[in-house]
TrEMBL record:
<feature type="transmembrane region" description="Helical">
    <location>
        <begin position="305"/>
        <end position="329"/>
    </location>
</feature>
<feature type="transmembrane region" description="Helical">
    <location>
        <begin position="9"/>
        <end position="27"/>
    </location>
</feature>
<keyword id="KW-0812">Transmembrane</keyword>
<keyword id="KW-0012">Acyltransferase</keyword>
<feature type="transmembrane region" description="Helical">
    <location>
        <begin position="85"/>
        <end position="102"/>
    </location>
</feature>
<feature type="transmembrane region" description="Helical">
    <location>
        <begin position="174"/>
        <end position="198"/>
    </location>
</feature>
<feature type="transmembrane region" description="Helical">
    <location>
        <begin position="122"/>
        <end position="139"/>
    </location>
</feature>
<feature type="transmembrane region" description="Helical">
    <location>
        <begin position="47"/>
        <end position="64"/>
    </location>
</feature>
<comment type="similarity">
    <text>Belongs to the acyltransferase 3 family.</text>
</comment>
<feature type="transmembrane region" description="Helical">
    <location>
        <begin position="239"/>
        <end position="257"/>
    </location>
</feature>
<dbReference type="InterPro" id="IPR002656">
    <property type="entry name" value="Acyl_transf_3_dom"/>
</dbReference>
<keyword id="KW-0472">Membrane</keyword>
<dbReference type="Pfam" id="PF01757">
    <property type="entry name" value="Acyl_transf_3"/>
</dbReference>
<keyword id="KW-1133">Transmembrane helix</keyword>
<keyword id="KW-0808">Transferase</keyword>
<keyword id="KW-1003">Cell membrane</keyword>
<feature type="domain" description="Acyltransferase 3">
    <location>
        <begin position="7"/>
        <end position="318"/>
    </location>
</feature>
Amino acid sequence: MNKIYYHEISFIRGIACLLVVLTHITLGYDNTHYTLANQLNLTINQLARVGTPIFALISGFLLFNSTKTKEIMIKPFYISRFNKIYIPYLFWTAIYLVVGQATHTHPFNSHKILQYLFLGEGYVHLYFIIIVLQFYIIFPFIARVINQKNIIKYTLFSLIIMILWYFVRSDNPFKVIYFRAILLSWIGYFFMGGVLAYYTEEIRRYTVKYFFTLILFVVICIMAMLIEIDLPHLFQSDRVLNIVYVPIFTLFFFLLYDKIKDTKLQHFITYVGNLSMGFYLVHLLIIGGLSTYMPSWFWQPPYSLLHYILTIIFTALFIEFLLLFPYGYKILPVAREKSGYKRH
């Protein structure tokens, strides 16, 4: 069988990555003075909250797509994921802890070693790597029972479980329930990725046929999110309504690739997508460095767009610099294959 690549996947990951960076930029200011610039930044922050769930969806797509026609060899699978994900996670957890201790922004706490190792509490964004690892742990067993005929059934079941979990954790008095690094808060998105993997061509045809209807749904979603926003109260990415928003935006981005294919914008977003895990791991170091060394008058909400652009540029440069070293790919699990993801 000839290899067919889903170029859209790197593109979607790139958009998700850019949205995640945007959420952290727009939260990086003093919001005690509730100015118009602050309100605009926080509104953008809320609209960008679909980025992390889309990351989970694409991670699910990659796993399910890789096993549609071949059985997983459990030991090699676990060894590969440990080397590609957990080793970089440990490395960057150590980096963030060292930097946090040195700058007194995130002091090391010896009593939280287990949380650092297994709950992603080394810094605010590392929890997502733990979520992905949890799904990797159970995926070989899931793959034994999932196929094209039952993926939709299991996806609906996982979404019901996820919704129930949202309600349970909100009322449970035990602190562990509130950890965002628990797979139950995200598992439905991984299964959504499975649906996309098994029905890629069917979904493509359907969305192309009803493209303008999809655009209408996107507009409705944006309007609903704007109505829902209640500043200065902020919602997180792991919430019930994103179960509706995320698949709609993902399908839109899937089709957007064809609309801007071979443009500079598409190549840039795909480039970010190929380096997405590197961006995810590194970008908060860059944000911290920029906010520290920029003049205080410049690190202010009105300049957030410029800060965002600088963060993207310096993060990309830093990643490319690290990849020059022999072990660069060991600490930054970025895509060596630049053309896309294979169809099996």
